[in-house]
């Protein structure tokens, strides 16, 4: 636990050191990198907000299976939210950590949350039908 605390305390210091080094090295493109990271972070936070609303709506409906799926959706949403926060934090190290958080556990959480690829027969609608036959009337011909 003490190591995690040290890592969290050293992260801003390392971010400042790498930011100064990269700005001196490449200049203005580094500022573009920071702006792009902030934009990506805000987009991820917006996506997390929408996913959170959907998961909470599903949780409010109740049901055992729905609650399990919604809890996994909440966890997947928390992952996207945390990655968005890391992207908003200016610096290269936080962006790399945001990518790791966003990409590594994504498939597992998406599969558990039911967000993954759809089955091949999703567009099949089960129904009953009755065939109704009408007599065909012949129209009188003008001759």
Polypeptide structure, described:
- It is elongated, with a radius of gyration of 27 Å.
- The N and C termini lie far apart (100 Å).
- By secondary structure, it is an all-alpha fold.
- The model has no long low-confidence stretch (mean pLDDT 79).
- Helix content is 73%, strand content 0%.
- The chain has a domain of 86 residues.
What is the structure about, briefly put?
The protein is an all-alpha fold and 143 residues long. Helix content is 73%, strand content 0%.
Keyword list:
5 helices; mainly alpha; elongated; 143 residues
> Structural class, from helix and strand content?
mainly alpha
Mind telling me the C-alpha Rg? 27 Å
> What portion of residues belong to β-strands?
under 5%
Q: What is the ordering of alpha helices and beta strands?
A: HHHHH
Q: Could you give the distance between the termini? A: 100 Å
Low-confidence stretches: none
What form results from the Cα inertia axes? elongated
Mind summarizing the main beta sheet?
Answer: none
**Mean pLDDT metric:** 79
Please count the beta strands (DSSP E, at least 2 residues each): 0
Helical fraction: over 70%
Total helix count?
5
Q: Which secondary structure elements does this structure contain, and how are they paired or packed?
A:
Layout: H1 2-26, H2 28-61, H3 64-88, H4 92-103, H5 106-113
Helix pairs in contact: 1-2, 2-3, 3-4, 3-5
């Amino acid at each position: 636990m003490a190591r995690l605390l040290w890592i969290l305390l050293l992260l801003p210091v390392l971010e400042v050191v790498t930011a100064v080094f990269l700005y001196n090295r490449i200049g203005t493109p580094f500022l573009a990198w920071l702006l792009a990271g902030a934009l990506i972070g805000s987009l991820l936070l917006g996506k997390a907000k929408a996913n959170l609303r959907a998961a909470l709506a599903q949780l409010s409906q109740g049901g055992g299976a729905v609650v399990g799926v919604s809890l996994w959706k909440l966890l997947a949403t928390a992952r996207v939210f945390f990655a968005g926060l890391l992207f908003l934090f200016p610096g290269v190290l936080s962006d790399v950590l945001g990518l790791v958080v966003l990409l590594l556990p994504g498939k597992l959480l998406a599969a558990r949350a039911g967000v993954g690829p759809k089955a091949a027969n999703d567009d099949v609608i089960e129904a009953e039908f009755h065939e109704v036959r009408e007599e065909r009337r012949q129209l009188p011909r003008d001759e």
